[in-house]
Design goal:
The protein is of the alpha+beta class. It contains four helices and five strands, in the order βααβαβββα. Helix content is about 35%, strand content about 25%. The two termini are about 25 Å apart.
Amino acid sequence: MTGLTARDVFLTTEAKADLAALDARKDKEAASIAKRARALRSILLADCLHGEVVKKERIPKELRELPVENLYVEDLPSFWRFLYTVSRDRGERSVVVVRIVDHETYSEWFPGRRR
């Protein structure tokens, strides 16, 4: 069974900054996180619903302001998280990477969430 394909994967300004900050660190942990985040592109093009779904009422206020109608989470190394949404334009789906965040930020946005 194949997943729902996406036309393209885009990064928000915030996600680009998150990835650039990882690249600037130059340590093995950051390199591993950035490498996995980039590898998700091909996975999400083939199956844009690959990640874990976040219930609409659980989407953090910081992300709803973008606006984000749906939210998916992918795990990254060292407990980092890759947050993305799927949008539709003229029947075609696109993945928009909203943020790439560390465990501390993720825990602030999703308090008490067990993964």
